[in-house]
Amino acid sequence: MFIKCCSKLSIRRCRQYLFYTIFIILSFSLFLNIKYGLINHSSETTNKILLQNESLLLFKESTLNCSGDPLEQWCQHQIKLCNSSLIVYNKLFIITHSIILQPEFAQGKRLGGENIQDVLNQPEEDEYFHFQKEFIKLPCDIQEFHDRIPDGHLSNIFSAISSYRLPQKTHTIYETTIAVNRQDYVNVYHTITDVYTVYLLCCFFQRNPKSVRILFLDAHPKGNLDILWS
What UniProt keywords are attached to this protein's entry (predicted)? Predict the structure, then answer.
């Protein structure tokens, strides 16, 4: 029913815009090298700063749900890179099998999650990170797919990619993580469309939304709409 309704909603006309808020989908195995704790993370209604040194996230691969628009279109337009450990769907979003994030290469003036009263009138650009080289690391020769990266918002992600070798010590977590770079986080319409997009992705990858972690790749302070991400 959800898929059938999807094609009728007026929100469908804004689908491509919505995916500008989906920075990257981190799945199947995600290494988080976060000893500096600069990435804002939320698994409940409040923002938290990750403090673990290295975390390995794993979950079992499932069959894609390709029934109905736009899911069928996503299935038909895939770019597989890095021995299929990274897949670009319809030039809109990415799923990865093995990835390391190094927050020390995410530069920003704020950590995110502050009380709004403490950061009133701050410049909007202070609420976003600038991702430098080495922020994202993949287990393959990245030169092999640079010429196949689609133009647009995803090209900014790949500018921060380098290669890695498997860390010796990791903490393993069996779950799915979706990373989101939110825009207009205090706007009801944009927050609802962000949440809707994440739910649609859960349907596509056949994941229970209640079991999915949300990783915010921005430095927004706390907002009244954060409860919608629970």
Answer: Membrane, Transmembrane, Transmembrane helix
Mean pLDDT of the chain: 70
Mean pLDDT of the 144-173 span: 64
**Mean per-residue pLDDT, 83-104:** 81
**CA–CA separation, 134 and 160 (whole Å):** 6
Whole-model pTM: value is 0.69
Q: Where are the domains of the chain?
A: 14-217
Q: Does residue 54 register a pLDDT over 60?
A: no
- The size of the chain, in residues, is 230
pLDDT tens by residue, 193-229: 999 999 999 999 999 988 898 888 888 888 888 888 8
Let me know the angle formed at the C-alpha of 186 by 197 and 225, rounded to the nearest 5 degrees: 70
Q: Which of 196, 197, 190 is nearest to 223 (CA)?
A: 190
Distance of CA 50 to the CA centre of its chain: 16
- Is the peptide bond preceding residue 221 cis, with omega within 30 degrees of 0? no
Distance, in Å, from the CA atom of 81 to the CA atom of 88, rounded to the nearest integer, reads 8
In the structure, how many helices (H) and strands (E) does the chain have?
5, 16
What's residue 153's pLDDT? Answer: 62
Task: Name the 3-class secondary structure at 206.
Answer: coil
Neighbours of 104 (CB within 10 A): 14
Q: Whole-angstrom Cα distance, residue 23 to residue 19?
A: 8
Burial of 143 (0-12, 13-18, 19+ CB in 10 A): exposed
206 burial type by CB count under 10 A (0-12 exposed, 13-18 middle, 19+ buried): exposed
